[in-house]
Amino acid sequence: xxxxxxxxxxxVAELAQARRTIEGLESAQAALRAALERAEAGKELLWGVxxxxxDVIARFDKDARHLYMNATGAAICGFSPEAVxxxxxQELGFPPEACGPIEAANARAFATGxxxxxxxxxxxxxxxxxxxxxxxxxxxxxxxxxxxxxARDVSAQKGLEGELARQQRLxxxxxxxxxxxxxxxxxxxxFEWVNPALGRFVSDAEQAIGRSVYEVFGPETEAQLGAIFxxxxxxxxxxxxxxPFKLSVEGQEQLTHWDFTFQPIREDGEVVGILAxxxxxxxxxxxxxLQLERISALEKADALKDEFLSVVSHELRTPVHIVMxxxxxxxxxxxxxxxxxxxxxxxxxxxxxxxxxxxxNAVLDFSQLSSGALKLVPEQVEVGAYLRELASxxxxxxxxxxxxxxxxxxxxxxxxWFDPLRIGQVVTNLVGNAVxxxxxxxxxxxxxxxxxxxxxxxxRDSGIGIEAAQHERxxxxxxxxxxxxxxxxxxxxxxxxxxxxxxxxHGGTIGLESAPGEGSTFWFEVPLGGP
Amino acid sequence: xTMSWRLLLVDDDALVLEITAALLALSGHEVVAVGSGSExxxxxxxxxxxxxxxxxxxxxxxxxxxxxxxxxxxxxxELVVLGxxxxxxxxxxxxxxxxxxxxxxxKPCNEEHLDAALGKLxxxxxxxxxx
Lengths: 531, 131
Prior knowledge:
The structure holds 2 protein chains of 2 kinds. Chain A is of the alpha+beta class.
């Protein structure tokens, strides 16, 4: 309707309508402006994100010319982001080893429309840069119009991989050169891996891998090793020492010895395989064998010595005794008495023969004590009566040398359980020594007392005494403390060594108290209850 | 005080036998010396002895067997039998049936040892007999 035809009311209404339309347009315009502002801000944000990305981000045309490059990339190339636009990689000074792969990948991306990737490394004065590059083609109406390129410096990662490789090589070298065989068996007892040292054991490392342990070690080993492996697979480590194995080395069979460890290897608590460690110990085993042989030879020689001593002294006893018997007969025979000189000579011969019999007996006792062949014959002994009787038989020894011998054996000594022959031998030896080392006119005293569950016997003399340093030595065999005296009846130095052993087989102890010039007290204690 | 006993001496070593017999005779004992177990048994059944001194290791009938047979003779249970043993210790023989012996001496031993040992055994036997 023409406004000129409109009524005033109609015009007012029309104007109001128009004002509302204008207001609507103004409000739409404001919204649009706000949207544009937001878009602008988003664009700024996007540029900021792109420029701050640690990756190089660019956009290529089909000739691999830069349509865009973020600040990171431009900085690497030494240009401003604006200056790189329209330039090829060569023009930006990329090294030739980078340009080739980049152009080829770009061409593939434009030709196929598929994402591409390329990898290259180039040296720069500070080191090597490793770059990984990805292409995302931008497709409009089925045509590739550009490609977004993201290039990432993976040098740090590369360095890590290099370090890993280096460590792996080091580990490998350590394992390869270890003087121990190292192998890994899976649950089916198949060798998954062996080192060269184990290779020596199984003759060929390469051949062992992938084969069963019994195939490699020989089928006969299943009986020996089957149960062991079963228990290792159940989680129990196994350690075996000095296993003998025959190895063929350069065509020659050779007996070797190996220490073994089979260690279960677990993954998430389950045994997944066995670590087999083996170390050749042939040299050690050989040395041990040699030592054992040497020890056994020494033991044999020692036993032979004891046997020899025992046989010789036995064989000597009878003839020595016969000679002594004959001499005694000569001395005693009243029917045809000897003249004085003959009597004196035969008497000397008899005494020397008695000395000889003493030595033979000492050697026999000693050999029997050394080999453990001497058996005690313990019996219940009335100690008081026993010692008094012994004392009376020993008194003659002392009086023959003009010494005073006294025995102080108290009444009421308890009965004791011991071998009277052997204890008598010890007392006789101690008194004999006292007589030997005490000058004429000296005194010798035998005493006895019960001390708790033990019987203590002492022989005290007024002799020359023994210095403290010699106290231990006098009980050693073949030792006679040099005191300027000629050797007596027991000239071999076995008397006290035998006495000590006889007391010890009775479960007792022997000792002395003495100082030079103050005489000596030899004592022993034996349990009243027996050995 | 000198005791005088009737002794039967048994040893296969002729020289040892001769010397021991002579020495025991010189000590005042009446000694019959024989060189084998069978001879010893023959003499012991003919007449009574105070004691028998018996070598344990002898060829043929050994001392253990002789001692057992001596015990079977009339009055044999009361007889004093003293064993003389060389190689083996008396305890070893004791384990192998030495119960027929009243005592043992280790060979060789002189007439004084024999005198002392026999004196002790005979005194013990007499005391037991008197009791």
